[in-house]
Specification:
40% of the residues lie in helices and 20% in strands. The protein has 253 residues and is an alpha/beta fold. The radius of gyration is 18 Å and the shape is globular. It binds S-adenosylmethionine. S-adenosylmethionine binds next to helix 2.
């Protein structure tokens, strides 16, 4: 009996380590180590607060009992919102520390440590695929998108938040002053570059929204009890200058 339990634990450890290291190159191991370190040190304070994730639910409009995969799920903040909507939720992240903390924050989710370039899921499994603030950090984005398409059902919906290289902060501060976080592989693309990437990977753009959080954070400090974080708003500027973009997409088949 005891032998069987030890054997089970060893198999589990072996599975975790092969998932982590077999599918990763040296740079990915470095990125994973940086995220392990940052989550150990800062935990939730590294990420946006829970209310900042309401907007993704408003955009995705997931149906009860739908099946969602959050790729690079971090500490499980979006997974928790999906579960509150009755969605069967899966999360995967390269960081062991992220997944360990997610298991405490969001125990109802199915959580896996793994690399977005090799998703350990069957073809045609998910109704919804989300990837928030993470695609720009991935080394082989085309492979990541191909994997997400593979595991998505035919009529699945995809929601990505990605960083804009034309935004003032990136263009005039982070990038030229070399302040971008290279250990965590921080990167950005312009609106046209993201659009071309998604379309050339066989995804169809349904809608694009500017990231609402810079505005909502300001509003929160002025009217903390009168802010609807899930409300979609119109902004009086061209989308090309948004801080980040939120793309809603479907498979182009
Ligand atoms: C800025 S955090 C965003 C976390 C989460 N999506 C959120 O918005 O709360 C970026 C996440 O990407 C994960 N990540 C980076 N490269 C990855 C990869 N190749 N496969 C899976 N996760 C990855 C990191 O571990 C980290 O949790």
């Amino acid at each position: 009996m005891v032998d069987q339990q030890i054997w089970k634990q060893l198999c589990k450890l072996f599975k975790i380590y092969t998932q982590i290291y077999f599918f990763m190159n040296e740079r990915q191991v470095e990125i994973k180590r940086w995220f392990d370190w940052v989550y150990q040190k800062k935990s939730f304070s590294y990420l946006r607060p829970p209310e900042a994730y309401d907007i993704f639910i408003s955009i995705l409009k997931p149906k009860e009992n739908g099946i969602a995969l959050d790729v690079a799920c971090g500490l499980g903040l979006l997974l928790k919102k999906l579960i509150e909507k009755g969605v069967i939720s899966y999360g995967i992240d390269i960081s062991t520390e992220a997944i360990n903390q997610s298991k405490t924050y969001c125990p109802e989710a199915n959580l896996t440590i793994g690399n977005a370039e090799n998703l350990p899921f069957d073809n045609n499994t998910f109704d919804y695929i989300t990837c928030i603030g993470s695609l720009e950090r991935m080394l082989d984005r085309r492979k990541v998108l191909a994997e997400q398409k593979r595991v998505a059902k035919k009529n699945a919906t995809f929601c990505y938040m990605v960083r804009n290289s034309e935004n003032f902060t990136w263009k005039y501060l982070l990038n030229p002053l070399k302040l971008k976080n290279s250990s965590g592989n921080q990167d950005a693309l312009s609106y046209d570059e993201w659009k071309n990437l998604f379309e050339s990977c066989g995804l169809q753009i349904l809608n694009v929204y500017p990231d609402h959080w810079p505005y909502l954070r300001l509003r929160k400090s002025l009217f903390p009890f009168r802010t609807d974080y899930g409300k979609l708003r119109r902004f009086p500027f061209n989308i090309c200058y948004a801080y980040e973009f939120i793309f809603l997409l479907s498979k182009n088949e």
